[in-house]
From TrEMBL:
This is Uncharacterized protein. CDD domains: GT1_Gtf-like (cd03784). Keywords: Transferase. PANTHER family: GLUCOSYL/GLUCURONOSYL TRANSFERASES, GLYCOSYLTRANSFERASE. SUPFAM superfamilies: UDP-Glycosyltransferase/glycogen phosphorylase. Signal peptide: none annotated. It comes from Panicum miliaceum. The lineage of its organism: Eukaryota, Viridiplantae, Streptophyta, Embryophyta, Tracheophyta. Pfam families: UDPGT. It comes from the Eukaryota. GO terms for molecular function: quercetin 3-O-glucosyltransferase activity; quercetin 7-O-glucosyltransferase activity. Belongs to the UDP-glycosyltransferase family. Transmembrane segments: none annotated.
Length: 416
């Protein structure tokens, strides 16, 4: 949102206010982007006291039952986010679709913003149609076209039959965003969330997408979801170092000095995101176990929930530190453009994908949830900018690193 705000300000004579939940606002350092203001929306949700963000259930409840009234007051009162200024338009992250009815009630124009690929939104926007065709049940399970009568589904089947995304991606039914859950209850809840998002988005004419036209392959041959005007505005990236430093959390710059001492292309950068989920926690711990024994120098970004750090072997941090570097919050863009970085082991979050592609860094992909599997499919099969880590077995991890760092496959992936 901050990157989009900066872009809008640079394009014209407008001022932009970015409103974020209070628990995010408290974690951000002072913002200094000309023409952009940052304000806090009361969420009614308290932090858990140990510095971790609130859990999804409490936050989702707050978005539906508490925050809409707070946003309405902020938009209409003199002491709200705009004061005496007039609000001409609301740009709403579609994952915060609760704000769409607020804008409608106040008679304000609304533009949607999808922070990921258009390909991901397409799979979500098609859910109602797929349900009408009997291909998705109300509980979120998929029934493949050739197995509707039997009610059985091969979750490893390619989704090409659904005619949503290119067959070249080799995506399976189980890779679709509404299926990636830890239980049947959460799967049903996730489907309900997406349905609510899609239904609310029907009232929006235009959607900004943090991506480029076509996204590669034959994606552009598919009709825009629900007849929306789709406006690719990406990739939205910070270009000025001062903007990165003042707009985001405080970063640990000592790793840049460490990188300066490493050989060109020798470092493996590892990060599985900020708010890593728990679906594959055990496997991620296994991957981390091998880092201490790898030959190449390792740079690890470790700011993740305690559940992702707990249970690592005794002495793990010290072992990695012997030939590597661990930082709590990494200056990721500066790391990825550094000549010492040879590859990036990642979860395939979209912002990280854009940053890696921007700097031509080879990727080893280990998706966790949500849109990660679709992003991974594009990286591996469409753009050929990385390879997939199929399992967390020690031999497989080392094999993938060798292929990317030393093999012809890795040279093909690199755009440097």
């Amino acid at each position: 949102m901050l990157r989009l705000a900066r872009t809008l300000v640079n394009l014209g004579d407008v001022s932009v206010t970015v409103a974020v939940p209070d628990f995010i606002h408290r974690r951000m350092v002072q913002l200094s982007i000309l023409g952009v203001a940052l304000v806090s929306i009361p969420s009614g949700v308290q932090d858990d006291g140990n510095g971790e963000p609130p859990g999804h259930p409490s936050f989702l409840h707050a978005m539906e039952h508490y925050m809409p009234a707070q946003l309405g007051d902020m938009l209409t009162t003199e002491s709200g986010i705009v004061g005496a200024r007039r609000v001409s338009c609301l740009v709403i992250d579609l994952l915060a679709s609760w704000a769409i009815p607020v804008a409608t009630r106040l008679g304000l124009p609304v533009v949607g913003f999808w922070v990921g690929m258009l390909a991901t939104y397409r799979t979500v926007a098609e859910i109602p149609e797929l349900m009408d065709r009997g291909l998705i049940s109300e509980s979120g399970t998929i029934v493949s076209p050739d197995q509707i009568n039997s009610g059985q589904c091969n979750i490893n089947q390619n989704i090409a039959d659904l005619h949503i995304l290119p067959a070249k991606l080799k995506l399976r039914f189980k890779d679709l965003p509404w299926l990636i859950s830890s239980s049947a209850v959460s799967q049903k809840s996730r489907l309900a969330f997406w349905l609510q998002t899609v239904n609310r988005a029907k009232n929006i004419r235009s959607i900004l997408v943090n991506s480029i036209i076509g996204e590669g392959g034959d994606s552009e041959l598919y009709d825009p979801p629900q007849g929306h005007e789709i406006l690719p505005v990406g990739p939205l990236l910070f270009n000025d170092a001062s903007e990165k430093m003042t707009a985001m959390w405080r970063t640990d710059q000592t790793c840049i000095d460490w990188l300066e001492k490493q050989s060109v292309g020798s470092v493996i950068y590892v990060s599985f995101g900020i708010w890593g989920c728990t679906y594959r926690t055990c496997e991620h711990k296994r991957i981390r176990t091998w880092f201490g024994g790898l030959g190449p120098p390792i740079l690890v970004g470790s700011q993740e929930p305690p559940i992702m750090r707990a249970g690592l072997p005794d002495g793990y941090m010290e072992k990695v530190a012997c030939h590597g570097k661990i930082v709590s919050w990494a200056p990721q863009d500066d790391i990825l453009k550094h000549k010492a970085v040879g590859c990036y082991i990642k979860h395939c979050g979209w912002n990280s994908v854009l940053e890696a592609v921007r700097h031509g860094v080879r990727m080893i992909c280990y998706p966790i949830s949500s849109d990660h599997f679709i992003n991974c499919a594009y990286i591996v099969h469409m753009w050929e900018a990385g390879i997939a880590l199929g399992s967390s077995d020690q031999s497989n991890v080392k094999d993938c690193i060798g292929r990317v760092m030393e093999g012809e496959e890795g040279r093909h992936c690199s755009k440097r």
